[in-house]
Each structure stands twice: as structure tokens, then as C-alpha cells.
Amino acid sequence: MYAIFKKDIHQFFSSITGYVAIIGFLLANGLFLFIFRDTSLLEAGYADLDGLFELAPMIFLLLIPAITMRSLSDEYRSGTMELLSTKPVTPWQIVWGKYWACLLIVAIALIPTTVYYLAISQLAAAGNGPDTGSILGSYLGLFLLGGVFTAIGLWASSLTGNAVVAFLVAIFTCFILYNGFDALSKLPVFEGGADYYLAMAGIRYHYTSISRGVADTRDIVYFASVAGLMLYLTKISLERKIWQG
């Protein structure tokens, strides 16, 4: 598993695509948080990072599929999956090795955003600095969201040998699971009945909950369950591809 993990990390950073994806994520955040007037932290008048945690999930919808799209699809396309299947590794080890590699890259993309916290801490008036506890909770929520999106992206990559198709499937699935249930719960037909449970089934509800700075066990279990389910589906898809190959 470690050999797969190391190979994927090296492969990602050996091409310009990896750097472009991470730089694009940081640039988009920087533009929205400090340059564009409507979303600028400097225009808000108070020291917090709410703008980052509201914006980042939408940027994740593009960043994470870009990170995961080649994870398994390139193995199918190049024929190395057949070679990999002859090695003493199980499908689970392949899935976990690739998952942890992609998740580490997501974490690396998040680390530079801590500069925003330092910036608003310096700009804030004395005694009115940012709520560190709340921000740490929000970062936890963002990392857990990244873990779920990574699992979804890996599953999408396991379906096809075409990286572009994997990218599009991952974006669509992440968007539906993040926004779909929330949008569905707002339909008048579900008002006062199933709306609450529909909202709870979606990722957005639990991300918003944990981003308030309270690490509720139910939210953590939800994220772990969805990620685990997607990884299990990835394993099944991988086994089918190996068997068909």
C-alpha cells in the first residue's frame, strides 16, 4: 500500500497539472477573499474566515475531481492495472493507497490557507481577533468534506479509463450529494414533514453543522460513513475491472 501511495504522490507532483490544480485553488480563494469586493474579508468589517469556509466547498468541487480523476483511470488506460493485479496487493490496499495519496494532496492544498488566519489576526483590532476554536472546527469540517469528495472522486475514476469522464462524473456526484438533498428539502411538497430528514441526508447539512465550531460525533460518523461507502464501491468497481481484464 505504501508503494502505491508513494507512487501516486510522485506522479501527481511530477507533472505541471498537480501544481496548476493547487495554485488554482489558492488563487481562487485569494481573489474571492481579498480582491473581489462582494466577498472580500477586508470589506466585512469583522475578523473571521466565514467567507473561506463558504467558498471552499464550491472550489473543492473542481479541485478534488482534478486530483482524483487519473488515480485509477490512467491505470486502466495504460494497462498497468493488469500488472498491478499480479502483485501481492489486494484491491483494498490499492484503494487505500490511492485514497491516502489524494487526501494528502488535498491537505497540502489547505495548509497555505492558514496564512489567511494570520492575516486577519494581524488586521483585527485589539481584543477583536478571530475565534480560533470556531476556525479550527471549520477546518476540521473542510478536511472531512475533502475526505468525502476524495472518496467520490476515486470511485468515479474507478468506473472508466477516460480521465475527463471521471472528472465530470466526480463533479456531478459531489454536487448532487452536497447540494441536491438540501435543495430537495426546500421543495414545498416536503415542507413540515420529510424536509428535515432530506436535509440531514445531504453533505451540506453536516458540513454547516461542524463548521460552527462544534465537533458533533454524529457529523463525524456521517462523513466517515459516506467516505467508507464510496471506497467500498470503488473496491467493487476495481475488482470488476480486474476480473474483466
UniProtKB/TrEMBL annotation:
Give the stretches traversing the membrane.
12-35, 55-73, 94-119, 139-156, 163-181, 220-238
- Judging by the UniProt lineage, the source's domain of life is Bacteria
What the entry lists under InterPro entries is as follows:
ABC-2_transporter_component, Motility-assoc_ABC_perm_GldF
Q: Which UniProt keywords apply?
A: Cell membrane, Membrane, Transmembrane, Transmembrane helix
Which Pfam families does its entry note? Answer: ABC2_membrane_2
Q: How does it sit in the membrane?
A: Multi-pass membrane protein
Transmembrane in keyword set: yes
Give the UniProt subcellular location, in the record's own words. Cell membrane
| Name the record gives this protein | Gliding motility-associated ABC transporter permease subunit GldF
